[in-house]
Amino acid sequence: MCWKKLLSNLIDDDPNGPEQKLGFHDIPWPISAAYRDKPDRRTRISLSLADLTQEAIVDFLFPATDTPTDSSMPPGADKKERKDKLRETFLRFHPDKFEGRFIKHVKETDRDAVREAIGQIARCLNSLMGENT
């Protein structure tokens, strides 16, 4: 599931709207493994906390093909784009913001794993943002 679809499916403002419960695997985690092609729609991709590594996040956010080859890029533009991408992703996965906005829609049985994954992603992104300064 992508963020656009996730956001459109959740009805925060309508208390009479349908209750949407998400599982751990329904969250659009920032790693390529979360988006692998599935043999059919009923097949779930098996992800775990171990898959949410800093290297996997970097590979997803900054694929090797994103490296600019255009020499007309202004100096520092690549660094600014990287910083902006990290900031955007951090805001999306910020533990407090995620908790307030989404956790009520997560199945009770998956909430601890989702909270742990969000914390792990936030720590990785913090580390990456520190390297980017």
Largest sheet entry? none
Strand fraction band?
A: under 5%
Percentage of residues assigned to helices: 40-55%
> What is the straight-line distance between the termini?
32 Å
Radius of gyration: 17 Å
Classify the secondary structure makeup into a structural class: mainly alpha
Low-confidence stretches: none
Shape: globular
Secondary structure: number of strands: 0
Total tally of structural domains: 1
Question: How would you summarize this macromolecular structure in one to three sentences?
Answer:
The protein has 133 residues and is mainly α. The chain has five helices and no strands. The chain has one domain (3-61, 73-132).
Summarize the structure in words:
The structure is a single chain. With 133 residues, the chain is mainly alpha-helical. It has one domain. It has five helices and no strands. Helix 3 packs antiparallel against helix 5. The chain is globular, with a radius of gyration of 17 Å. The protein starts with a helix and ends with a helix.
